[in-house]
Amino acid sequence: xxxxxxxxxxxxxxxxxxxxxxxxxxxxxxxxxxxxxxxxxxxxxxxxxxxxxxxxxxxxxxxxxxxxxxxxxxxxxxxxxxxxxxxxxxxxxxxxxxxxxxxxxxxxxxxxxxxxxxxxxxxxxxxxxxxxxxxxxxxxxxxxxxxxxxxxxxxxxxxxxxxxxxxxxxxxxxxxxxxxxxxxxxxxxxxxxxxxxxxxxxxxxxxxxxxxxxxxxxxxxxxxxxxxxxxxxxxxxxxxxxxxxxxxxxxxxxxxxxxxxxxxxxxxxxxxxxxxxxxxxxxxxxxxxxxxxxxxxxxxxxxxxxxxxxxxxxxxxxxxxxxxxxxxxxxxxxxxxxxxxxxxxxxxxxxxxxxxxx
Length: 358
Ligand code: HEM
Description:
Bound molecules: protoporphyrin IX containing FE
Largest sheet: 2 strands, antiparallel
Number of strands: 6
Helix content: 25-40%
CATH topology: Peroxidase, domain 1
Low-confidence stretches: 1-21
Mean pLDDT: 94
Number of helices: 14
CATH architecture: Orthogonal Bundle
């Protein structure tokens, strides 16, 4: 009996004496179900302290979300069917071949972020494709209301430059956007669900007079507000002129992109869009699934390792979707055939004027 007590104490003391050692051997006593995932804890610490400047939901998160889209969407089944190189999808080619891909018009403003990510990748010896997906999941986890994204590791670091012309533009027609997304393997519903990213977004390159004007009233919260606010009638021009692919918005300081406005109103996407306006939880669940789908474009899911347990849990959101103060149900463009825009409460207070996103 005495021996049993001693042995138990020895185990406890031993465990306390070696906080660095966990069963999986990860740093700082952390655990991952698969020991091969341990490296990602070190990348996590590096990203949160440096790139995300103390785990903030600010401009670097928004930049990585543009990057993950622009990297992954470089994938075309029709080019492959025509016997050409169709792109490697979520392969990190936007970093590996930045000399080619950063010259694409759609990638304006991403150079500094790409170089910061390259340095992180080289420090930890991880592939650029994995790093982009990981930094995306960590970045979203810094934003209130975001899903805890899946993270799969194991993408090869060998890639070729993406063919040009595969990234949808803000002035593109809905048909062009839907067709381009479909050519990469994503449906119109996936497109709507992915665009929850625009609920933590601003613009820098479309209208310099209203630099970092947010795309919804809560650019640091992943929520329904983007879907609600893009569905309201556009009445206000925030800057001295409308920028490239800019249309009027319902709120002073809010930037509305033509593509978002059109997707909110097209019968192929408007009903899903309207559903997303009703529930922050639905946004979170659907966005997570669509991001998981996009993250494996060009890869076989089964060949990757699930390292999702390294991703921090985002802070949950308590607020309910609402119509911005000063506007009413009558201000919606009812765009879903046969289903009126759902009734939503109006936020209290004065009509907002939005500040630039941090
Ligand atoms: C499907 C069609 C899409 C189009 C046409 C589009 C277009 C754009 C454009 C033109 C900007 C402004 C960039 C700037 O001026 O700085 C932007 C911003 C942004 N986009 Fe998209 N986008 C699309 C889909 C997506 C997707 C699928 C994601 C991510 C999953 C995404 C994430 C973002 C984010 C986070 C920003 C804010 C960037 C910042 O604040 O610096 N977009 N998008």
